[in-house]
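Task: sequence design from structure.
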């Protein structure tokens, strides 16, 4: 039973915006202020440009491969299922790590209204995650409309802060003095700050995941991703301009609720209430979008035989991948109890960057194989590759080691579930070194030979 095509361009644009604008904008300003001070504004600009370039790679890739699955579909089409699996697996890990971040943040902001003990904290996280999961099970159209409403609600407080801040600057230009000096802490932590802020822009990739549920995906997906990124950059840059201008960077570095602090500075008690409620709506909308997109990714990998079949079960009434939604809700709930926000974000960025890197490589091949000429398609993937490599380099050694281990942990899943390999043959392959060699020679799947084929495809893409 297939999925229904019920998402419009407006719905998908809001999914993109909703997936990006979440708890990150409500916490990242404080984190980066402690790393590089007002220079954070430059980081937000650079990260926005970097994210937009990679978003364009996704938008263009979806034009050539309008299939459900995002990175998994793009890389599988360009190379083969194994590399597609690595791209999809690493992105699934990244998105799974992001889901509990929103549950934790939602609970933290809620406590500015109601104090919760340890048990109540856990219960709120559970209700938050399973409530949004239930909405997605009922139907993607319902989920899309809920996300439309949450997106509009969560952008409103940001717009209010922007207007209030710009008016304050107009009547009191001295507010801008908070930008001087611009780099009180130097540039040493620029890369670390960029990684954290890039995570605030991540989420655009989820707009390509529900492709089989989108009307006219070849046109709708690229248009929605680009429109969504323009909206997000507009709000992020203006919001952060007001944040760093209205509150001293040292004060920002000491709070976990920077926009509430800005709301208090500009609008008093009313500002505190509005920004707190806006944070709750924003976090809910972002996690709702994340739940929608992440389930479609595991669904796509499952129907291709690269993930347990249970993830591809579609509800007979609602026509949604309900088992994928339920299972990821359980995993996210467990992570929200056992993990910290900082650790989850770090691992998420590493895995996202790896998946994006494979997607950029895949686009080099796709633009050669598929008919069509898109503006900037020759230079775009190489800019994306450079960005991904820098992000991977900028993560800590601990992130690199643990992130790599998580990616490698998915290989046994691929070996077990791959539909192209007979399981009895696989058992003999593991038991017999001679059988390993014979099979590789027979199927021409030596590592170096496979690597050279990929290099050749990329080379052909360059010299089209």
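Answer:
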């Amino acid at each position: 039973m297939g999925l229904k095509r019920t998402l419009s361009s407006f719905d998908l644009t809001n999914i993109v915006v909703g997936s990006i604008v979440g708890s990150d904008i409500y916490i990242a300003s404080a984190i980066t202020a402690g790393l590089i001070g007002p220079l954070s504004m430059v980081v937000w600009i650079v990260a926005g440009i970097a994210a937009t370039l990679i978003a364009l790679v996704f938008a263009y890739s979806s034009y050539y491969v309008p299939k459900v699955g995002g990175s998994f579909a793009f890389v599988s089409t360009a190379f083969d299922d194994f590399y597609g699996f690595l791209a999809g697996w690493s992105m699934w890990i990244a998105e799974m790590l992001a889901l509990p971040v929103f549950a934790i943040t939602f609970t933290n902001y809620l406590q500015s209204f109601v104090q919760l003990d340890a048990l109540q904290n856990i219960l709120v996280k559970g209700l938050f995650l399973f409530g949004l999961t239930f909405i997605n099970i009922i139907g993607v159209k319902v989920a899309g409309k809920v996300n439309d409403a949450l997106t509009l609600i969560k952008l409103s407080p940001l717009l209010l802060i922007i207007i209030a801040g710009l008016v304050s600057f107009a009547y009191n230009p001295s507010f801008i003095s908070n930008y001087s000096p611009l780099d009180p802490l130097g540039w040493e932590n620029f890369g670390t700050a960029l990684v954290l802020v890039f995570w605030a822009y991540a989420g655009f990739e989820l707009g390509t995941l529900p492709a089989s549920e989108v009307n006219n995906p070849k046109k709708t997906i690229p248009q929605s991703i680009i429109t969504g990124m323009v909206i997000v950059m507009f709000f992020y840059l203006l919001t952060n301009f007001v944040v760093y201008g209205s509150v001293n960077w040292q004060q920002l570095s000491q709070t976990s609720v920077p926009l509430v602090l800005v709301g208090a500075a500009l609008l008093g008690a009313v500002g505190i209430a509005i920004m707190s409620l806006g944070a709750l709506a924003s976090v809910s909308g972002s996690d709702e979008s994340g739940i929608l997109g992440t389930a479609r990714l595991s669904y796509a990998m499952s129907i291709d035989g690269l993930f347990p079949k249970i993830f591809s079960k579609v509800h007979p009434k609602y026509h949604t991948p309900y088992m994928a939604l339920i299972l990821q809700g359980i995993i996210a709930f467990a992570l929200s109890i056992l993990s910290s926000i900082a650790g989850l974000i770090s691992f998420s960025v590493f895995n996202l960057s790896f998946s994006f890197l494979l997607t950029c490589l895949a686009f080099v091949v796709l633009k050669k194989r598929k008919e069509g000429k898109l503006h900037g398609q020759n230079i775009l993937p190489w800019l994306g590759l450079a960005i991904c490599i820098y992000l991977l380099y900028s993560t800590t050694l601990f992130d690199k080691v643990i992130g790599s281990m998580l990616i490698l942990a998915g290989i046994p899943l691929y070996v077990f579930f791959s539909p192209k390999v007979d399981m009895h043959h696989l058992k003999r392959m593991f038991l017999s070194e001679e059988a390993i060699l014979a099979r590789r020679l027979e199927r021409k799947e030596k590592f170096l030979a496979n690597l050279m084929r990929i290099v050749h495809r990329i080379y052909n893409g360059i010299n089209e």
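The chain has two domains: 9-420, 423-464.
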